[in-house]
Amino acid sequence: MSKIPETIPDKATLYRNIPPKHILTDDKIMPISFSRYDMSTDWDEHSTPEESLQRHDIKYQGGIVGLGVSDIKSKIQNQIIKHTPSRRNPAHTDVLGEKDNEIRLAFCRIAKWIIEP
Amino acid sequence: MTTNLCEIKKPDIDEWRLEPYRMSCVGIKHSGSSFKIEKKPILTRHEISDELQRASAKWQLALQEIAGIISDSESELDSEIERSRHIIKLKENWDGEGSKGYKQTTWDRAVDLLSSKYLDYAMSKKDKIDIPNILPGPDGSIDILWSYPEYEVLINVPESDNKPISFYGDNKRENYLKGTLNSKLEELVLFEKIISKFQ
How much is the pTM? Predict the structure, then answer.
């Protein structure tokens, strides 16, 4: 598997695990899920949602959401999507940028459950 | 009807109490050497009594309704505050994402904003309020989230007292508000927006 970073097209989807403690009773996602400057995701070109979920310790596996790259680029400001593959995870992709209240809410809105809690 | 002042007889109060005769509203206008007395029938003693009772009943109903609304809102907010108390027990890496634990003082600051300031403001409006979720936030901060179909608001209470409370809210269309809470006026502007559901 390639460790060379590739350009991620707009049609791609990024998978992100949501820990159980980040999920509200109505399956809404807490904004803390999208607060890290370097937010880790998996590019769907190199990972299935199930593989993405299983990369996390079982007690932190809540569910997988999909973030459309085109949604991130068009609806959320100042975020850089960077493919950062490793030997262990060739799909690894960082979404880099400050995430204030507006941006965290915006990520909550574009996130779609792919593997539900 | 025009008469001299001396002809005016003030109704005897005891007589008025006892006699169910029709009271007259007396307006006096001075016009040269005479006074014009305008008589306008009002209500009998019984009619006044009935009217007062009806008004009193309406007031009581209105007050009960307001008290009920406030009590419901207060009770729902209290439940959410109690539910969120677990946040201060969360330790380092509680979510597997490396998130920090939380200080009692940060939670207290968030609860104070809601239970005294937001609730007080809502009570002054005499309206039922939307209850937010009190949630763990990034870097030891507390998030307060109103997530409703018509609007969303996220307030972030930082761990450090020196940092201002920040917020963002919108009606999912063009109407939004973003900033920090540095004064009572800014709090009122934000609470007004929340109570009006960002309309």
Answer: 0.78
